[in-house]
Amino acid sequence: MEKNINTYQTKGANALKDFDLSKRQVAIYLSTFDVIDADNDMIKKGAFTKSIMERGVDSTSNRKIAFLRYHDWQKQIGKFVELSEDEKGLFAVAQLGTSTGGNDALNDYADGIIREHSIGFQYVTDKIKWIDDTSLDSGGYWMITEVKLFEGSAVTFGANEHTDVVGVMKSEQRMDFASKISNEIDINVKSLINGKGSDERLFEIEMKIKYLNAQLLLLTKNEPFDLKHSLEIKPTEIIGNSFNWEQVIKSIN
User: Long-range pairs for 174-177 at CB < 8 Å and ≥24 separation?
Assistant: First the structure.
């Protein structure tokens, strides 16, 4: 099974650490270090350092790491007021907004509906390496030393909640699911092409397209785990950090 480098990924199912209703703040771990997850990935400490420096709380970027609901870039429920790495993982403190979405999330935290959190990110070329380990059923794991972090999300079932669902879908259900995602991509691509609104809005649309495209790719992931791995991944070339729009258009047509 090939590792897909250049698409929007989601990962994690990390529990709520603390919640202060009066301050509308939540303390959470978005990712945990040195644990092999369901994708056979092990994220190492330092993997988020560059993203925090470039787009973290104290950065000057206008495209800061976002706090979302369900990885939906049109559902920002607040903002991060702290992002840092400790010995356990990626720690965050988030301030919930006073919008409808923020208030809904506040109530869902209070009611225990939101219990898990995950990240939206991309792998970084040459920062992911296969490590052979015969003690594991998979034969090894991917060691991740850097990712490009876009957002952290409050979720209900964890970051990869669609994976198992897709695996048991009937063919007609898959077609319906793919059609819905493709239609949503089409709408967002047209909005992006129109170019209306702020740079921040267009960036959010681009991120949503990346996420939706990644969900389409889940529909093709039915092959068994392949134990033949190279020591280092050789991803498909892209130009700089630009997104492969040709691939998106092909997925729609």
Answer: 174/219, 177/219
Tell me which DSSP letter residue 220 carries: T
- Cα gap 92→80, rounded to integer Å: 7
Is 215 in contact with 191 (CB distance < 8 Å)?
A: no
pLDDT tens digits for range 194-218: 887 777 767 777 887 887 887 777 6
* Dihedral, 8, 146, 155, 92 alpha carbons, nearest 10: -140
- Give the β-pairing of 66-69 and 25-32: unpaired
What would the two tokens of residue 137 be? Answer: 């059923």
Instruction: Decide if 165 contacts 215 (C-beta within 8 A).
Output: no
Q: What is the pLDDT of residues 63-85, one digit of tens each?
A: 899 999 888 888 899 999 999 99
Strand order of the β-sheet with 128-132 is: 41-43, 140-144, 128-132
With beta carbons less than 8 A apart as the criterion, state whether 37 and 14 touch: no
pTM of the entire predicted model: 0.70
66 neighbors 76 (Cβ within 8 angstroms): yes
